[in-house]
Amino acid sequence: MQSPPRDKANQEQIWQGLETGVFDVFSSDHAGYRYDDPEGKMKHGPNAPFKKVANGVPGLEVRTALLFSEGVGKGRIDLPKFVALTATNAAKLYGLHPRKGTIAVGSDADLAIWDPEKEVTIRQSMIHDAMDYTPYEGKTIKGWPVTTLVRGEVVAEAGEFVGAAGRGRFLRCDISPATVPLGRRTIAFDPATGSAEPSKHGDHVH
């Protein structure tokens, strides 16, 4: 995988960024490459050079549980910060707030109910991502979602999907205040000419 896992000193810098608001959301990609698959990690053999190995690792399902355990559980961030990093801020950035990302009259009742005391040892056998490994195998964490609701309907209970297929809805994303174009360029680059110098059309660098 790349970028590679960081040492303790750099990890602490990332935690500080989460605590102080340098980072607005907590996310990453999920690279769904199996080991035991013709197109997976071992496609070019067990001793293939790095550039020949399918990149990335899986981790989608346990991502927020890891943040809860290591962040909220160990006092690095509080519960409102956890909710902001995993739900509210993303809804705002994508122009979906207050329909999403908050509990309020008129908002969709999308809720994840957590048991903050529940201890779970992560095993691939309990994960639903169709992978054949997890990089977190054997790691014990504290705090786990026990019930998930989408628009007020229970769709997951005790680690199992109990919803119905076809219940998803298309969500139109509005332009959020955080991403509205300013109507001006902020760097000395003219896309019309490809030049790093301002054009002669009265453009200014701000």
Can you give a write-up of this model?
This protein is of the alpha+beta class and 206 residues long. It has 2 domains: 8-161, Metal-dependent hydrolases (TIM Barrel), CATH 3.20.20.140; 175-206, no CATH class. The relative contact order is 0.12. It starts with 7 loop residues before the first helix and ends in a 45-residue tail after the last strand. Helix content is 18%, strand content 14%. The chain has a 4-stranded antiparallel beta sheet with strand order 1-2-3-4.
Salient structural properties:
globular, TIM Barrel, alpha+beta, about 210 residues, disordered C terminus, four-stranded antiparallel sheet, single chain
